[in-house]
Write a structure and sequence with these properties.
By secondary structure, the protein is of the alpha/beta class. It has one domain: Rossmann fold (3-Layer(aba) Sandwich). Helix content is about 30%, strand content about 15%. A five-stranded parallel sheet has the order 1-2-3-4-5. It starts with a strand and ends in a 14-residue tail after the last helix. The relative contact order is 0.16.
């Protein structure tokens, strides 16, 4: 299991990714949750190098990737040139920002045309999940996911699925990892304390 965080993320304990890593470890699921370099000024090559290194270290068994925010954009970059030996079984991209929002410090991860076929080859299945309204996205998540050739799930509410909008422990993400339940009810996480 590999967790890829987003912009300005320093793996805070209050984020659902931290909670998810802890819960999976309790369930004896090996988890890699690396700190990506310079999260305030992300550089594609540095982030890609870490992601590829972590993918190479994933053990035998099911290979799963969960991303949050800019980590999803990183996944799209990685997936487009992924060596078949690093292919994963499942990917859950949560709250990816719209490519038009990748400006300023996030600009180095700006997306050109996404090779939809390459993204499909990089995993057995990939799904996008996001709130109905997100400050890092204009328009419905379904329209953005369709551009990338991916199915999506819209979660009721407003926010970026992070502690700033009250998003805390996320049981649905844990269920998705453990049960591979593609039909589960996607609901926001409990409010962060």
């Amino acid at each position: 299991m590999l967790l890829l965080h987003g912009f300005e993320h320093h793996r805070p304990r209050g984020h659902w990714l931290w909670w998810l890593a802890e819960e999976l470890r309790r369930a004896r699921v090996p988890v890699q949750y690396p700190q990506l370099p310079s999260p305030e000024l992300p550089r594609l090559e540095a982030w890609r190098e870490v992601a590829l290194g972590e993918l190479a270290m994933l053990g035998d068994g099911e290979r799963v990737v969960i991303t949050h925010s800019l980590g999803g954009i990183l996944w799209l970059h990685v997936a487009q040139g992924l060596d078949p030996s690093l292919r994963v079984d499942r990917v859950l991209m949560t709250a990816p920002p719209h490519p038009d929002r990748l400006t300023g410090p996030m600009g180095d991860l700006a997306l050109g045309t996404v090779d939809v076929a390459a993204v499909a080859r990089a995993s057995g299945s990939t799904m996008v999940a996001a709130r109905a309204e997100d400050p890092y996205r204009a328009g419905p998540i379904g329209a953005l996911a369709t551009r990338w050739g991916l199915p999506s799930v819209e979660i009721a509410g407003v926010g970026h699925l992070n502690p700033d909008d009250g998003h805390g422990p996320w049981g649905a993400a844990l269920e998705w990892v453990l049960a591979d339940d593609r039909d589960l009810e996607w609901r926001p996480g409990e409010h962060a304390d």
